[in-house]
Each structure stands twice: as C-alpha cells, then as structure tokens.
Amino acid sequence: RVLVGNWESINLNPTIIIYRDDAQYLLSVIHMNETSKQANPATYEIQEDESGLFINYNLKRTAISYDVKLDLLTVSTFGDYIRN
Questions:
Q1: What pTM was computed for the model?
Q2: Which of 11, 24, 41, 58 has its CA 20 to 30 A from that of 78?
Q3: How much of the chain, in percent, has pLDDT values that exceed 90?
Q4: What pLDDT, on a 0 to 100 scale, did the predictor assign at position 81?
Q5: Secondary structure string (H, E, C) spanning the chain
Q6: What's the CA dihedral at 21, 61, 9, 43 to 10 degrees?
Q7: What pLDDT, on the 0 to 100 scale, is given for residue 33?
Q8: Quick check: 18 and 5 in contact, CB under 8 A?
C-alpha cells in the first residue's frame, strides 16, 4: 500500500500511477503523445515472487523497488521516481 500514488520521474521518463483494484495492485505508465498532447496509459499488474516486486513490461520482467527512507520508487526500465 505504501507505493500507491502518483510518481514523477527524475529522469523525464513517463509518469507512473500505482493504485489498487480489488485484490491487486496496478501500475499505469502515462505516455504523452508529443504531437496530439494526448495521454496514453498502459496498465500492468504488479506481481511479487521471492525476488521481489515486478511487472511484465514489453514481454520482459521489470523489477520494482522502493526506498522507504528516501520515498523513492525505482522501476528498472524507467529509473527513479519521486512521489508527486
């Protein structure tokens, strides 16, 4: 539950929103179309195994980690995020 919220990239990558839907947690990546200025979300189920949290992004396992002290979310494909 600590990950729920809006996350802004410190590397200018797409914004991420994490939320709960029934019994599962979802991660939405908000891609902005530069031409039309329209937001295009893509949503992934956050999964967990013995290695930690991850999503399946573009058919690849993408790790998710969280630093409690810094309130910093790291998504291996996109880099570091701060809570917005």
A1: 0.86
A2: 24
A3: 73
A4: 97
A5: CCCCEEEEECCCCCEEEEEEECCEEEEEEEEECCCCCCEEEEEEECEEECCEEEEEECCEEEEEEEECCCCEEEECCCEEEEEC
A6: -30
A7: 81
A8: yes
